[in-house]
Amino acid sequence: MAQPGSLMQGESGDPRLHAEERQVLDAIEQSREKDVLASREKELPANEKHLDGTIKPQQRLIHDPDVSFAEYYHYSQQTRAEEETHPSVGKTGVLGILFPSKSGPGAGHSSDEDVNVHVTGDLQTRAVITDDEWAQASRALRTATQGTAFYLITTDILGPFGLPYAIATVGWGPGVALYTVFAALAGYSGYLLWDIFLGLDSYQFPVRSFGDIGYRIYGKYMRYGLSILQGLQLLLNVGLIVMSNGGALSQASKEKLCYIICCLVWALVGYFSGQVRTLQKFGWLANAAVWINILCMLVSMIGAGKYGPSYGSVDSSAGYNIDPALITAVNGTFPAVQTSGGIPPSPGGFVGAVGGAMNAVFSYGGSMVFPEFMAEMKKPKDFLWAMWAAQAFIYIVYMFYGLFLYGYQGQYVVNPSYLGIASYGISTAGNVLAMLSAAIAAALYGNIGLKVLYNNVFVEILNFPPLTSTSGKMIWIGFIPVYWSIAFIVGAAIPNFSALTQVVAAFCILQFTYTFPPVLHIGYKIKQAALADQASFDPATGAAPEKFRLKDYVRYFFSQTWYLNVFHVLYFLGALALAGLGAYAAIETYKAGFADGVTTSFTCTSPFGSSS
């Protein structure tokens, strides 16, 4: 699953471009909104309008209810046409994706003047900004290339290390089939988001998040829902990382340190790392995370091939959820490693298989931040091939890793997989690498997650001060321990790692990757069909048809690409059904774990067991 955040200012910089500028832009939105709405109660001064009387885009709210879909679409087509005239950014094609240029057009930083044009909240200042200056400021914030997007999507933490467990619960054949289907559909969902983005984003009205897309198609409540769910997913991800790092530290200490204390250690690390409000401070560490993960995968494969599974971790193994007899020692001897071509026959086979599918979904959780990636590309049209290449890389590399671990460890595979190696030395090496990579990810997840919740809930709904103000910065300092404490409580109270990953996958990841893209695309195509049937946006008057009734939605649903809309309804319903099954499987796994006494809240004994 790709790490959330912004892109880099060229491949040689931080992969979270303009985090500070974007933070300021979000923060001033609320004060600007009040000023603009007040000004609309009376006739706008002449200098705040075009000569023809229409309101300038730079005088609009970021989430402006008076901007029609037609206006968004009109300016997006202008922007796409201009982007086609831009020279290529660095190398293109496969080589450009795998070996991105460190220079070239778009690789530099934007100037302070460009940034200030977009973040100033004073209406009098903004009133004298010309249309060209406003568009140029937006262009300056877009510098990333195909290679940037490729490496960010493949920067993962939890996806590869849960796949061996997923395959163990469903067997060789279904595992390969499910993972292939998930990969193909994830690539298709990425295409849908790309298609929508190109039709809604522009220099005048830039799309900056998943919530922005939802807002422009279905309104403010969709944006609220998407933002809250995104924040929830990031919080649960932090909780999962606290759990996995707590287990890794416990193993490295040969369980001399209490598991709950190990988790608390990582929560305390978050208290300090979370005080960094701008993601630019993480720089090269974030770039290194993908290579650390690959190295951890190699170490895990070497350990699994040479030393076999750790029998001290059997209570967290796939075999325990399939059939406890598969991992129960008889006369002190554990059963041999077993694999299955199909779904292993067991009392809880269905629940285990669905749970395994949810763990596989984790590999394709990057869709949540695809709009943010595209928002900072000089040519968003180039995102499609980078995304497909990244999904293919994830499919091939993760699949090989998952099948390799399952072949050598069978029913003894645990989640995360690096915690199930018998050799203490190999296990410790893998644990150290995993802890380092996960610590980077946790800091990033926590940073983005808290900003999403703070800006979209506390600032917008509860009128908290923006993060750029002195009081906002003080509140941020106080919120960080609260946020990480909640993550710690999640990990300590529900230490069943695989069940929690199922919850995150079913309620959050699966929605952003498979449920929301088709339903958003349906709304997008309906409104696009309305533009083809009615008068389009007229920049001279600002007039455009926008009011939709139920019969209008039905009529445009069955116009033009009706067959695609029907397919997307089926796709949406199928994803929703799978999410329901995943939630059911997670609940059943929790119930079984607590009933058997294997899952114990706030336990001192590591649920991942010992590596020796």
TrEMBL record:
It is found in: Membrane. This is Amino acid transporter transmembrane domain-containing protein. Pfam families: Aa_trans. The chain crosses the membrane at residues 149-170, 176-200, 221-244, 256-272, 284-304, 350-371, 383-401, 421-445, 474-494, 500-520, 562-587. Residues 143-525 form the Amino acid transporter transmembrane domain. It is a multi-pass membrane protein. Its main location: membrane. Keywords: Membrane, Transmembrane, Transmembrane helix. PANTHER family: AMINO ACID TRANSPORTER, AMINO ACID TRANSPORTER TRANSMEMBRANE DOMAIN-CONTAINING PROTEIN. GO terms for molecular function: L-amino acid transmembrane transporter activity. Residues 1-39 are annotated as: Disordered. Residues 13-39 have a biased composition (Basic and acidic residues). InterPro entries: AA_transpt_TM. One of its GO terms (cellular component) is membrane. Belongs to the amino acid/polyamine transporter 2 family.
